[in-house]
Design brief:
Chain lengths: ~280, ~260
């Protein structure tokens, strides 16, 4: 009797299992499988060898990692100061600030790229202003380049980084600050010895989210330069787009490299957090 | 102390301005005929007029709304059923459900879209239908947000206790879950559904990679207009953000109201 009832309840899992299997897990297995499947035979690493020996793919990987790292670090630095200011600010401004963060954290992809085009593109508002007032940095700025991408990526990292970092600052107790003051620590010492070490797990966690976020960003870059710039996400997608013959193997291998980079970032981050926590326990 | 506050205020204001500039410029750009010098000239609503009389715009808007409603509904349904089993039968399953639900959050659009394409395209079965792939992909894309909404709300009301109480009063577990637990969490789930809708409104990758021109959503529509008319494009960006702002605003409103109720 008990057993029959048991089974009936488990039927409720079925729709979830079907959808997840067909649209998440099986596709991922297929992707990994494609990356090691040769035209003839059983297993090959040919595609990975080709990735690491072809200049285009090498540059794509390097560019992706570089842009992601720079934008992630820039994002976290701004977010740190923003969050710090947030907790020493008062009144209505805090409310406005959270609202602006929430609103602009949705501003990414094609719309964001378009906004930057009319700001700093070839005939952008700032570009023209730069020409009129002879501000070389603005008039000569090339948005359709790696530097342009970094600029746009930093923009979308800031709201995300701040939203992720804000809750961590509530963990900094007022008493610590007061104790530090009594022991004659100045602001700089307080932050380097107490504030930042305590925030470190959250800072590192946020950093890895930002890195992955930039690494997998596609729409922003695609809207800006189509496929005319070597970037991992662009390369992967181009292998599956209709205009060229679909190259599932190479695309699969590139996707595996992207996933590997994400896992690597998360692992490094977890390792650092562990090390940091251990170090603190010793003291 | 006062001085420090001032510095913080100034920094926050600078960040706000920086973050708002791209949007503000787009808004102004959409309302003027030309912007060749420092100030724009020739106020006009022509861009919006053109946009609102373009049937492609309404069609792509309709498609985006349709795909959000259906995929979010699918996601909510399958997760509510799954969480029933997790709560009533096997809490240990929760760990695995969470793991599976968080994968799309890490992978994001590019990998998700191409993995689905690489499995189904060219197989010739009904699963290789672009629309099936797209709706399935969106249901997976919003899974993390819906999952967190449902789980947090179930934890907050202590669902297990409610079900046991209902059982004591002679209710079956299934009935207790659907008539006691779900009505209690539905408002919270609604908030995460709104968040999921705003995610789908912002999606370009899935729609472009999987469906392309077969199912032009609002972002793909914007993309096709980028090279045609910057005036029209700016109006589309403003409309997309008006929609997303309204959604985000209502999320904040509902969350705030929940907090008020608790206090």
């Amino acid at each position: 009797m008990r057993k029959i009832k048991f089974n009936k309840h488990y039927i409720a899992l079925l729709p979830f299992v079907i959808i997840v299997l067909f649209y998440e897990l099986l596709p991922l297995f297929q992707l990994a499988f494609n990356s090691v499947k040769p035209e003839k035979g059983v297993l090959t690493l040919e595609y990975f060898i080709r990735i690491f020996t072809t200049p285009l793919y090498q540059v794509a990987i390097i560019n992706s990692v570089r842009i992601s790292l720079i934008s992630a670090f820039a994002g976290i630095i701004v977010a740190f100061f923003a969050a710090r200011s947030f907790y020493s600010a008062e009144g209505k401004l805090k409310k406005i600030f959270t609202m602006v963060l929430n609103m602009t954290s949705n501003f990414s992809g094609v719309p964001l790229t378009f906004a930057f085009m009319i700001l700093m593109g070839n005939t952008g508002v700032l570009t023209l202003a730069g020409k009129q007032f002879h501000i070389k940095f603005l008039s000569d700025f090339n948005l359709y380049s790696g530097t342009g991408l970094i600029l746009i990526y930093i923009y979308f990292q800031i709201p995300l980084a701040t939203l992720l970092l804000l809750p961590a600052f509530t963990g900094l107790k007022k008493e610590w600050r007061e104790s530090a003051l009594i022991l004659k620590a100045d602001g700089f010492h307080y932050w380097t010895r107490i504030g930042i070490p305590n925030l470190l797990p959250s800072i590192l966690g946020t950093l890895s989210v930002l890195f992955a976020n930039a690494l997998a960003a596609y729409a922003t870059a695609y809207a800006l330069i189509l496929n005319n710039y070597a970037l991992l996400a662009l390369q992967i997608s181009s292998k599956f787009k209709g205009d060229v013959r679909i190259d599932k193997q190479m695309g699969g291998a590139l996707a595996v490299v992207l996933i590997f980079l994400m896992v690597l970032a998360t692992s490094i981050n977890n390792y650092l957090i562990k090390k940091n926590v251990k170090g603190r326990n010793l003291v | 102390m006062k001085k420090k506050n001032l510095g913080s205020h100034i920094f926050l204001i600078i960040i706000c301005i920086y973050l708002l500039i791209p949007f503000a410029v787009t808004l102004v750009y959409s309302l003027f005929t030309s912007w060749d010098s420092i100030l724009p000239s020739g106020f006009t609503l022509r861009n919006y007029q053109l946009l609102f009389t373009d049937s492609q715009f309404w069609l792509s808007m309709g498609r985006t709304i349709l795909v959000s409603v259906i995929s979010v509904a699918i996601s909510i349904t399958i997760l509510l059923l799954t969480m029933f089993v997790v709560v009533v039968e096997k809490p240990i399953l929760g760990k695995y459900v969470q793991f599976v639900c968080m994968i799309p959050y890490a992978l994001q659009g590019v990998i998700l879209s191409i993995s689905i394409i690489s499995l189904y395209s060219g197989t010739g079965s009904f699963l290789s239908n672009r629309l099936f792939m797209l709706f399935g992909a969106y249901s997976i894309l919003v899974l993390p947000y819906i999952y967190q909404g449902i789980r947090n709300n179930i934890n907050a009301i202590n669902a297990e206790m409610l079900i046991r109480a209902a059982q004591m009063l002679g209710c079956s577990e299934f009935k207790a879950y659907f008539f006691v637990v779900i009505p209690n969490i539905i408002q919270g789930v609604f908030v995460s559904a709104l968040l999921a809708v705003s995610i789908i409104f912002g999606d370009f990758v899935l729609a472009n990679n999987i469906a392309g021109n077969n199912y032009q959503n609002i972002q793909v529509y914007l993309f096709t207009k980028l090279s045609v008319s910057s005036g029209l494009s700016s109006a589309i960006v403003v409309i997309i953000f008006a929609v997303v702002f309204v959604i985000t605003g209502s999320i904040l409103y509902f969350q705030g109201r929940k907090k008020d109720l608790k206090q």
